[in-house]
Amino acid sequence: MDAGCGAGLVTVAALEAGAHHVISQDYDGAALSDTARNVTDLLGSEARNRLTLWEADWSQLAPMHADVLAVNPPQRPAALLPDVPEDERHLHDGGGVDGLAALRMVLAHASTARVRSTAAEVLNVAAMDPSPWAMRKIASAELPFDPAWRSVLPQGQGTVDVWEFSQPASPARP
Ligand SMILES: C[S@@+](CC[C@H](N)C(=O)[O-])C[C@H]1O[C@@H](n2cnc3c(N)ncnc32)[C@H](O)[C@@H]1O
């Protein structure tokens, strides 16, 4: 599942890497249309047949089961939002006081065994208590950050980590 698919970057990568099926979810219908168009344009109709679009909020994730949920959540701490141009602010809102509120929301509602999320290193994800999820960092990259981050990353770049959260296996059904 690509939760918050936007224009479909993660969806395209997963389908191209051979995912059997991808559910692309976003609460913005225009994002779903963009994702469908990008999959067809970039990968063709065979890949489009392996894609399901789902217009829903992250608070509605629970009924949907998947092997892995990937998310690149909004993560600007609220204090940084005034520096985001007003017409783009809605795209970056949701991080809350510490930047981790959107990630917490996904973890609170996801039914998948694994969640993989990006998180800027400055956000101190390591201090999160994501119980019942176990967490480990699986990748990192040094990337440029847009100017709205300048009060915490004055050099204009920083590390983005990918964290994997996994749930203990549920007991076998009788
Ligand atoms: C930072 S963008 C990431 C887009 C894409 N996954 C990528 O990596 O390029 C976050 C996406 O999450 C979606 N989103 C934010 N809050 C959401 C929520 N509560 N429920 C569903 N989608 C949400 C936004 O509409 C946006 O498309």
From TrEMBL:
One of its GO terms (cellular component) is ribosome. GO terms for biological process: methylation. It holds the Pfam family PrmA. Keywords: Methyltransferase, Ribonucleoprotein, Ribosomal protein, Transferase. The keyword Transferase applies. This is 50S ribosomal protein L11 methyltransferase. It comes from Streptomyces polyasparticus. GO terms for molecular function: methyltransferase activity. InterPro entries: SAM-dependent_MTases_sf.
